[in-house]
Structure formats: structure tokens, C-alpha cells
Amino acid sequence: MSDLRRITSMIQNYSVSCPEKPDKRYLFQIKVYWLSIVTLLSVLVTFVFCVLWTILFKLEDATSTHCGYRVKNYLPTISTAVGNYPVQRFIWTLVIIAHSPIRLIVVGIYYQYYTSIIKPSLHWCAVLLRFLSTVEVCSLVVLSIFTSSDYYSIHEKSFVTFICASELNMVISSILLKKGRITKTVMTKLEVRSLKYKIYFTVFNMTSFAIAGYCFLRHNAYCESGVYTFFALFEYLVVLSNMTFHLTAVWDLAGVSLVIDDNLNLTYR
């Protein structure tokens, strides 16, 4: 009888000390940190290439406006640089379409991030931000496919939609992260840095857009030399500040990974 008890005890001890079942293995895993950097860098490099290529080989044609060649300009607009010439249009459209699904995945991750740190009464703001971010990405795809030279009406409406969605997205998210957090949550150093740059780039973006709009209207009204160049320059700054605003995701989502499990399910943790 004592031997039976001893054997039973050994079995119980063994079962307790046995290692647990290994964690679920993932077929693919990448940090959102690197995903955001690679995605936005691809767009930035493509943007710089299109502008420089147009300046080097198509400057005179790209900077001509209704004012004619009598008004000297030195920079092409973004719409012209990425949409009026076959090489630039092909590369830009390809990169924008390719990066869009990743942007939409990050939008979904951000929604979970917002709902985990903001007050429950403000969760509707997280839904609104998700909608605005989705509209921003989709309108960017549409205005890239339908260029201003071939489909001006569609391009114009898509551009207006993109600007409205992006500006609202930047303003609302900055205010929400500053004023709408749950009282008990404490911001990490990375989140403090992210919010600081979000506010900075939001103000910079809106200021640049206002100046670009003024230069555009002034050029159309008076055909002054150089004004169109300033319009193009501040248009570049609008796009660049929008990119850097979205790059703050590397701080907000620093600890999040995108994974594909054994069943080919795409999740994040």
C-alpha cells in the first residue's frame, strides 16, 4: 500500500514539473516599428525620385502654367511630378497601391490602441479616426490613379477629400491623445515624444497648406514670377509633414508586432 502511494506521488510530482505546451509558433512576425519605417520610406524615396527626375528632364514643360513661359518657375507641383509623365506615374502609382494595405492594417492597430487608452465615453472618436484614416488612404490611391492631366475632376475631388481627411485626422488625434486619456494611464516616454511631434507636425502641416493655398490663388490672379515655385515648395512641405506625422506610429506602437500564425491568420500582439 505504501508503495502504491509512493508511485502515485511520483506521478503527481512529474505531472506538475513537466513543461507546459510550447507557445503557438508564428510563420511570420514583424514589428510595427519596422513596418511603419519601411512603408513610409518607400513613399518618401518615390516622392523624391519623381520630383528630382521631373526637375532634371522635364522642368520647362512641368512648370508651365496658364501664365505661359514668360513667368519663370523652378519647381513642379506634386500632381505634375508624379502624374504627368509615364515613368514617374507608373512608379508612384505602384508604390502607393502596394503600401496601402499595410497602411490600412496600421489603421486597425491604431484603433485598438486608442480604445485601450482613451475614456470609454470618447470611443466614438476612435471610430471617427479610423474612418478618416481609411478615407485618407483610399483617396490617396484614387488621386494617384486618376491624374490631374487626364481626369482633372476626379483628381481634384480626391485631393480635396484627402486634405480634409488628413487634416481632421491630425487635429483630432492630437487633441484626443492630449485630453482624452483615461486618468489612470501614464504616458510612456515614447508616447510623450510622439504627442509632442504630432502637435508640431499638425501645426506645421496646416500652416504650410494655408501658405500653399495663398500662393496658388495669387499665382492664378497675378502671374507673378516665383509665386508658383513657392506654391510647389509648400505643397511639398504639406506632404512631408503628413508623412512624418504618420511616422510617429513607431513610438505609439513600439511594442506591437504583426504576425501570421500557423493557420494563416493575420493578427497583432
UniProtKB/TrEMBL annotation:
Residue ranges of domain CWH43-like N-terminal in the record: 32-254
Keywords: Golgi apparatus, GPI-anchor biosynthesis, Membrane, Transmembrane, Transmembrane helix
Major subcellular location class: Golgi
A single GO BP: GPI anchor biosynthetic process
GO annotation, cellular component aspect: endoplasmic reticulum membrane; Golgi membrane
InterPro entries linked: CWH43_N (IPR019402), PGAP2 (IPR039545)
Subcellular location: Golgi apparatus membrane
Its membrane topology: Multi-pass membrane protein
Transmembrane segments: 32-56, 90-111, 123-146, 158-177, 197-217, 237-260
Protein family (similarity comment): Belongs to the PGAP2 family.
Protein name: Post-GPI attachment to proteins factor 2-like isoform X2
